[in-house]
Design brief:
The protein is of the alpha+beta class. It has one domain. Strand 1 and strand 2 form a beta hairpin. It has a 5-stranded antiparallel beta sheet. The mean pLDDT is 85. 24% of the residues lie in helices and 27% in strands. The protein starts with a strand and ends with a strand.
């Protein structure tokens, strides 16, 4: 896995593996997920999604079910076949 990061405002998002992302999600951190070939920059064609356990629409959501749904609907040959995870620090 490549060491990768980007900034949104003053928040730094650092790339992590799925286990680290699950732990951070359960602790209430902001997680950004995207297909492996998607750009994480703010553009019209970004495919990233932001998830957080304490967010109003995700109260009671399980990390693995969110990832499964994301992968089913968003992964394809052009976007990539697996998900990359970024944690806001």
């Amino acid at each position: 896995m490549r060491k990768d990061y980007f900034y949104v405002g003053d928040m730094r998002f650092e790339r992590v593996n799925k286990t680290q992302a699950r732990k951070a999600y359960n602790n209430g951190s902001i997680i950004r997920i995207a297909p492996i070939n998607a750009s994480m920059q703010n553009s019209v064609f970004s495919l990233w999604h932001e998830i957080q356990k304490d967010y109003w629409s995700c109260e009671g959501c399980i990390f693995d079910s969110i990832i499964d749904n994301f992968e089913y609907y968003n992964l394809h040959q052009g976007a990539g076949n697996y998900t990359k995870y970024y944690v806001g620090r």
